[in-house]
Specification:
Blueprint: E1 8-9, E2 12-13, H1 48-61, E3 107-112, E4 118-123, H2 129-138, E5 148-153, E6 159-161, H3 168-171, E7 179-185, H4 190-204, H5 213-227, H6 241-244, H7 252-256, E8 269-272, H8 280-283, E9 287-294, E10 300-306, E11 309-312, E12 330-331, H9 334-341, H10 343-358, E13 375-376, H11 387-395, H12 409-417, H13 424-453, E14 470-473, E15 476-481, H14 484-499, H15 504-518, H16 539-549, H17 555-571, E16 576-577, E17 581-586, E18 589-595, E19 608-612, H18 624-637, E20 642-645, E21 651-654, E22 661-664, E23 670-673, H19 697-716, H20 728-733, E24 745-746, H21 750-781, H22 789-798, H23 806-812, H24 817-841, H25 848-859, H26 901-908, H27 933-948, H28 956-959, H29 962-973, E25 975-978, E26 995-998, E27 1001-1004, H30 1010-1024, H31 1028-1046, H32 1051-1066, H33 1070-1087, H34 1093-1108, H35 1112-1130, H36 1135-1150, H37 1154-1171, H38 1177-1192, H39 1196-1214, H40 1219-1237, H41 1252-1264, H42 1266-1277, H43 1288-1300, H44 1313-1329, H45 1349-1356, H46 1366-1383, H47 1397-1400
Parallel strand pairs: 3-7, 13-25, 16-23
Antiparallel strand pairs: 1-2, 3-4, 5-6, 5-7, 8-9, 9-10, 10-11, 11-12, 14-15, 15-18, 17-18, 17-27, 19-22, 20-21, 20-24, 22-23, 25-26
Helix pairs in contact: 1-10, 9-10, 12-13, 13-31, 14-15, 14-16, 23-24, 24-25, 24-27, 24-29, 25-27, 30-31, 31-32, 32-33, 33-34, 34-35, 35-36, 36-37, 36-38, 37-38, 37-42, 38-39, 39-40, 43-45
Function: mRNA-binding protein involved in proper cytoplasmic distribution of mitochondria.
Keywords: Cytoplasm, RNA-binding
Family: Belongs to the CLU family.
């Protein structure tokens, strides 16, 4: 892609890189001079801002380059290794081109703007003209030009007009050089002039700039370093992590706090004039529209937008004066005209460009799929007048384009699918077009769904019941989906109530029994078993259940249809088309949006059903040509070709679910839709009500692979078969029949039918017996470490586990408290989501905010006063989901009346100001006021039991983490809360004013680039093997492909940046790693959310990289932010929090803050013992970190004790022969040797000649070492108990060491008679002064908390051995400082054996494995025990 060169133009030096390059800045080989890819050192200061703008805009297009600098990181910090070729562990930055398409060559090209601007580009023949236009749109010199033609002049003088959709190489040969590109003003039309006005408004606005907290920290640190350049360096502050980890509610305000930047205003307003539309006679003379401009100077102008530009007309009143004003002011661009009209505009426009250039370029790039924030600023910012915002909101309703210019979504989508795909560049162009169309469709569908729910779009079948209403808007078809789960649950509840006895216990037992039988399981939820039918239900109940079961438009069917659409899109069979699809949840309703098949609404005769059934199998259509395409897709999706019988008994051979529909549209394309059962039904859930309980595609793929491996083993007679050697034919030969265990009749050989059923049963058994236990095992080993509901859902789906198995995951994870708590929060939140949606469906528009606040109060256990007396309501309104969906507030539940409703409303929203339009009508209270906390939690318990076969504990309300649960619920429903401290002890923690917004939650079918996915997987494999150059090359190529397909704002781009940061980190280039990690952090903040766990991991990794550059204070501030995000998303009890504490402790250790390091390690050890157990590897990491710290302060006995614990755990978990166990043994030997070196000092420990004066000498020594004294005091003051405590013998030994086993210090039992008399005298004098005396005879005031550590040793393992003298302490410190210098350049892990005990005792403190966030600095995404080569240290999330 095009990029700016490093050639100077008009005194500016611009950076130019190729899209496929990821340049690592650093000293050049030989002379150490800096490379010239960045600013010259002597660049003119007056052009500095323009250079930054150029770099920023270039980075937006070519983010692969590292031109932009993260504050605090300079070129001098980078470290490019010139020996990378010789050393396979180092990255060669020159080998960054694609591995399959060859190296892309760049050729210079000068660009001349319409007003004489000059820009230098580097282009490639494969660059499209649209790429050039996009770059020029982002360049500061040409950013305000939108309507122009591009004229290319080549070396021989020939000129070529460049059309938008051509590649440059198709027009002319640019490889010869000396090519120039000229921007020539074009003629405006109605569309282009509107585009130009919108672009100008975007340029002048700074509200769209995302300011990352990390960027603000880096800029603040840089400014501080400049200010303190001549002063002494301050000591790094201590984090507040141990303080706020227990109160996440108090930190919500800090979560959304952003740097306060003053707003920049360039012009008062730019709006469409009331003179519009243009009179006919003026349109014939070129007028397109009229604008009213109000400048900051207070002047008002009426501007005519003409086909040739903009000029100020002479209108000054209510009558249009079309003549140009005097003096004549005109320009081809609106920015150029404003510069003539206002000096303040010129100054403000420069400031806006500078503001956008100050931050990271990714902060200015728009996101096509933004996330919904669940927290908003508190108090909300003032809502100011903005004509441009109002016009955009009111003139483009419900996602439609300008009137008369609606998009044909289906034609756009299918045309993009027909793009060529032979070469990589062809596939990139095709994937980019598909991604853009799908993103635009999802956005338009979301806006249209809001219009449908808001009753702004009329239905096309108004005479049908409201639940069956359908809508067409902007060429998108909308329909409602029912909440089938709660409909069935209510019917089951009612049926159980009829058959139950009068006794409440029997009634509850009957409901639970019916629920269990209906889903095909026994009451014991630990084991899922198949049940033939729900025989306990009577005929009436069975009929009602069958009615609900046959309902197609349910939540489950919509989800399955979307998954099936994605599966066929991934199969990508030529000639077989699917529709664009999105699912929108808003205001309690679920809307399914689809593109429209050509001719289906017009009744065109060419439209016909060729395949599948529309009447539930009574008549099945079949077409040979269509069947061939479906069969080809079925081979890739493991769908077996099989025979079924229709209603007449005719046999039909199909390779898809019976209810799918194959339609040929009026455009002669073959469409397949209604793909609810692309995968077979789950054999573990065969009862009524679970018709749409199908297996996930990931499970089908994993099962087929396991079967193919087993088949290959049996064929070859080998015990082990590599996945790579698995024949693709064998893999595709494993197919499943999607129509078994359904109401459809299968034809063919009975034995074959039985085999098909058995294979599907075997897949379900594979899920229960293999996948679930393996998943729980991975949770225990931290191979999988979900932190919130979203990451847990993603982890389950990645393993092929449906969310209905979440109850079983919880039961299998009782030994993991953090996973148990996470599962409880998730099942409660998922059911509470349906309850809240039911309330919202029955709520009037003006009561939505109050209903949400009321629900949140009840959800957290706070019943509103007076509302609890509302009469005997057994169920809250959400369970009746059969109400019409088309009209909000039109159901019967919206008309419920209750007592004291007005008082309840006032108590919830007491901050609302009443107006004359709102009447205090006590006879018509809001429907949500009948909801109480007991009713909500009753529904939640029943729903959890019904859907997840899981019994919530009795104290679930008190055990559920409130902030994590509320966060999860808000994300699922789309609620935005005010970011303030919520007092959950108050009667009403939430008020109506706390509900800031309600967003639509969208599920879409936006595709993923297959080429980029393959490159990333290959790169991960190379990284795990330690092949850094190859991994770097693959990740760089993947980054380039993703950048071209979906732009920088995409989650997969963030993953690419993270892996690139890993490679650079292992290669020793910390500055390059920070640059890539900063990109990932910004992308995660914008695409996933400010408090997403991946964002927290990004902050943690940034901290580790900054620490690698010895910027510890900046690293600690990033760690503080990471701890805040982890606390909000997962709470304080999580292994990742403990791992982060270890990393923080290592940072404090490196700056000699041992007392703080000990406190963090103590907290980490307690968390790991409580969450993971005494024998977990992560607990061993904690013990090892403690051993290192004790070694640093000279407490070698304690180092040996803790390292012994490390060794015992590793030996038990990994075996004696594992390299990590051997390394721990080497560390233990080192510590024991150091301990043995002190034995000569202890030989005189029983000498009777030693007096208490020697003991006092030890006290004086400790007083001379305040850091050791503080460490002892901190460890003693920590309190608490630990299951991993030292035994009594170890505690006695530690106490003896403290009392005086160093040099000539005697133990307490070795004191002579003179010492005893001295001790008695001390006691007498102390007693006379009223001072308590410890058993050792030292007054409390002499050495506070020191001698008390003998009793604390069993609980804290924080006892240390004091130095014998100041000289030995200085010597020990000198040795440690010398070791620090060596370690700072070393990339070792804690598992490495120390070659030099004196200098390498601390080598584990940097990059130890698995320290860090997630699995830390060592674990890659590979099997630890199966890797033949030693895995590298990595920063993972």
């Amino acid at each position: 892609m095009a990029g700016k060169t490093n050639k100077k133009v008009k005194g500016k030096s611009n950076v130019g890189t190729d899209d496929n390059e990821n340049h690592i800045e650093g000293p050049a080989e030989g002379n150490g001079s800096l490379e010239t890819e960045s600013l010259d050192a002597d660049a003119d200061a007056s052009n500095e801002n323009e250079v930054k703008e150029a770099e920023a805009s270039m980075e937006t297009q070519n983010s692969q380059g590292d031109a932009n600098k993260v504050s605090g990181v300079t070129e001098e910090n980078t470290a490019e290794n010139p020996d990378a070729v010789a050393n396979p562990d180092k990255v060669d930055p020159n080998k960054s081109e694609g591995h399959s398409e060859g190296q892309l060559q760049l050729y210079p090209m000068a660009v001349k703007g319409p007003s004489g601007e000059h820009v230098e580009l580097q282009v490639n023949p494969v660059d499209s003209v649209m790429d050039l236009r996009q770059f020029l749109l982002d360049a500061p010199e040409t950013c305000f030009y939108t309507c122009y033609d591009l004229i290319l002049q080549v070396k021989d003088g020939a000129k070529h007009h460049l059309a938008d959709f051509y590649e440059i190489g198709d027009v002319a040969d640019v490889t010869s050089g000396n090519c120039t590109l000229e921007m020539v003003n074009a003629v405006y039309d109605d569309r282009s002039v509107r585009t130009h006005v919108r672009r100008t408004r975007e340029l002048l606005s700074t509200s769209s700039i995302h300011s990352s907290f990390s960027t603000a920290l880096a800029m603040e640190n840089e400014a501080k370093n400049k200010a303190d350049s001549g002063s002494s360096k301050e000591e790094a502050p201590e984090l507040e992590g141990l303080g706020f980890m227990e109160d996440p509610a108090a930190q919500l305000e800090n979560l959304v706090a952003s740097p306060s930047l003053p707003e920049i205003t360039c012009v008062e307003s730019i709006g469409f004039s009331s003179f519009n539309p243009v009179p006919g006679f003026r349109r014939l003379q070129g007028d397109l529209m009229y604008l009213d401009i109000h400048t900051l100077e207070g002047k008002k102008f009426c501007v005519t937008a003409h086909t040739r530009g903009f000029f100020v007309n002479a209108s000054g009143g209510v009558i249009l004066d079309r003549r140009p004003a005097h003096p004549r002011r005109e320009s081809t661009t609106l920015v150029g005209l404003l510069r003539q009209l206002s000096e303040k505009f010129s100054k403000g426009f420069i400031e806006v460009l500078e503001r956008k250039a100050q931050g990271h370029p990714f902060e200015n790039v728009p996101s096509l799929l933004p996330c919904n924030p669940w927290l908003g600023p508190y108090p909300p910012p003032a809502h100011k007048r903005d004509v441009a915002r109002a016009e955009d909101a009111l003139t483009l309703p419900y996602g439609s384009e300008t009137v008369g210019m609606q998009r044909d979504w289906n034609e756009e989508l299918q045309s993009c699918r027909e793009f060529p795909r032979k070469t990589l560049q062809d596939r990139i162009m095709r994937d980019r077009a598909l991604y853009k169309v799908n993103c635009d469709f999802a956005d338009a569908a979301m806006k249209g769904a809001k219009g449908v729910i808001g009753r702004c779009i009329p239905p096309i079948n108004p005479t049908d019941p409201e639940r069956f209403h359908m809508y067409v808007h902007n060429n998108i078809f909308f329909s409602f989906a029912m909440d089938g789960d709660f409909t069935l649950m209510q019917q089951m509840h009612d049926q159980g109530s009829k058959d139950a006895s009068k006794a409440e216990e029997k009634d509850s037992s009957k409901i639970a029994d019916n629920l269990s039988k209906a889903i095909g399981v026994e009451p014991n939820v630990e084991q899922v078993q198949e049940s033939p039918s729900a025989g306990a239900l009577d005929s009436e109940g069975s009929a009602s259940l069958q009615g609900a079961d046959s309902e197609q438009a349910t939540y489950a069917s919509a989800n399955n249809d979307l998954k099936g659409t994605k599966a066929y899109n991934n199969a990508d069979v030529p000639g077989l088309y699917t529709l664009a699809m999105a699912i929108i949840d808003y205001r309690g309703h679920r809307i399914v949006a689809q593109s429209i098949i050509p001719g289906i609404l017009q009744g065109d005769k060419s439209e016909s059903l060729l395949y599948g059934s529309v009447d539930n199998g009574k008549k099945i259509f079949w077409n040979e040509k269509f069947h061939e395409k479906v069969l080809e897709a079925g081979k890739l999706l493991h769908i077996k070709e099989h025979e079924v019988l229709d209603g007449s008994g005719a046999m039909v051979k199909i390779a898809a679910p019976v209810e799918c529909k194959g339609i040929i549209g009026s455009d002669d394309r073959h469409y397949i839709l209604d793909l609810m059962r692309t995968t077979p039904r789950d054999a573990n859930y065969t009862g009524p009500g679970f018709r749409h309980s199908v297996l996930r595609p990931e499970l089908v793929a994993a099962y087929c692979q396991a079967e193919a491996l087993a088949k290959a083993k049996g064929k070859d007679g080998e015990d082990e078969v590599d996945d790579k050697s698995l024949n693709q034919v064998d893999l595709l030969s494993i197919k499943l029949n999607p129509n078994v265990f359904t109401e459809f009749k299968l034809a063919g050989d009975p034995e074959e039918i039985t085999a098909d059923e058995e294979r599907v049963r075997k897949a379900g058994k594979y899920l229960l017996d293999t996948v679930l236990p393996k998943f729980v095992q991975d949770l225990g080993s931290l191979e999988v470490s979900p932190m919130d509901g979203q990451t847990l859902t993603e982890a389950l789906h990645a393993h092929g586990i449906n969310m209905r198995y979440l109850g079983q995951v919880a039961n299998l994870s009782k030994h993991l408290p953090h996973i148990w708590d996470l599962c409880i929060v998730e099942v409660v939140t998922r059911t509470a989501k349906h309850v809240l949606k039911g309330i919202l469906r029955a709520t009037q528009d003006h009561d939505v905010g109050g209903a949400i606040a009321h629900f949140l109060n009840c959800y957290t256990g706070h019943d509103i006063p007076q509302s609890a007396s509302i009469g005997n309501i057994e169920k809250s309104p959400e369970v009746s989901t059969t109400q019409p969906h088309g009209k909000s507030g039109s159901s019967e539940k919206g008309k419920k009346k209750g007592k004291s409703g007005r008082k309840s409303a006032d108590s919830v929203g007491s901050d609302n100001n009443s107006t004359g339009l709102i009447k205090d009508d006590t006879t018509s209270p809001a429907s949500y006021l009948c909801v109480t906390s007991d009713l909500i939690w009753k529904d939640i318990r029943e729903a959890v039991k019904f859907k997840y076969q899981f019994d919530l504990p009795d104290d679930a309300l008190s055990k559920v983490k409130r902030i994590s649960s509320i966060r999860n619920l808000c994300q699922k429903v789309g609620i935005t809360l005010a970011a303030r401290k919520y007092d959950f002890e108050a009667q009403t923690p939430f008020k109506t004013s706390d509900i800031l917004d309600l967003h639509a939650v969208v599920k879409h079918s936006v595709p993923m680039c297959a080429d980029a996915r393959d490159l990333l997987e290959s790169g991960k494999l190379k990284l795990a093997q330690g092949k850094l150059p190859e991994a770097y090359e693959l990740f760089s190529e993947g980054f380039s492909v993703l950048q071209q397909v979906c732009g920088p704002m995409h989650r997969e781009v963030a993953n690419c940046c993270r892996y690139l940061a890993m490679v650079l980190y292992h290669a020793g280039d910390m500055a390059g790693a920070i640059m890539q990690q900063h990109k990932e952090l910004i992308i995660n903040e914008r695409c996933l959310g400010l408090d997403h766990p991946d964002t927290a991991h990004s902050y943690g990794n940034m901290a580790l990289f900054y620490h690698g550059l010895n910027q510890t204070e900046l690293a600690l501030r990033h760690m503080s932010r990471a701890l805040l995000l982890l606390n909000v998303s997962s709470g304080s009890d999580h292994p990742d929090v403990a791992a982060t504490f270890i990393n923080v402790a290592m940072m404090y250790q490196d700056i000699q803050r041992m007392n703080v390091a000990l406190r963090y390690l103590q907290e980490a050890l307690q968390k790991n013992l409580r969450l993971l157990g005494e024998e977990h590897i992560q607990t061993a990491v904690c013990y090892h970190a403690l051993a290192i710290v004790f070694n640093c302060i000279g407490a070698y006995k304690l180092s040996s004790q803790h390292e012994k614990s490390t060794y015992n755990i590793l030996a038990k978990q990994l075996g004696e022969e594992d390299t990590r166990t051997k390394d721990s043994a080497n560390w233990l030997k080192t510590f024991q040797q150091r301990e043995a070196q002190t034995l000569p000092f202890f030989q005189a420990k029983n000498s009777p000649a030693v007096s208490m004066a020697t003991a006092q000498k030890a006290a004086d020594v400790l007083k001379a070492r305040p850091d050791l004294l503080q460490a002892f005091q901190a460890a003693a003051a920590g309190g608490g108990s630990s299951r991993g405590a030292l035994n009594k013998a170890a505690a006695a030994a530690a106490a003896a060491a403290l009392i005086g086993e160093r040099e000539n210090l005697p133990r307490s039992r070795g004191l002579d008679e003179r010492g005893a008399r001295a001790k008695a005298d001390v006691r007498k004098r102390a007693a006379a002064k009223g001072v308590n005396i410890r058993s050792q005879g030292v007054p409390v005031q002499a050495l506070p908390e020191l001698l008390n550590l003998s009793s604390n040793a069993q609980r804290k393992k924080r006892v240390e051995e004091p130095s014998s003298s100041a000289s030995s302490a200085n010597k020990e410190k000198a040795e440690q400082n010398e070791h620090d210098k060596n370690v700072s350049q070393k990339d070792g892990t804690w598992t490495e054996s120390p070659a030099n005990p004196k200098k390498d005792a601390q080598s584990s403190t940097i990059g130890q494995t698995p320290l860090g966030l997630g699995t830390g600095l060592g674990a890659l995404e590979t099997k630890k025990a199966k890797q033949k080569e030693k895995p590298m240290k990595a920063v993972t999330s």
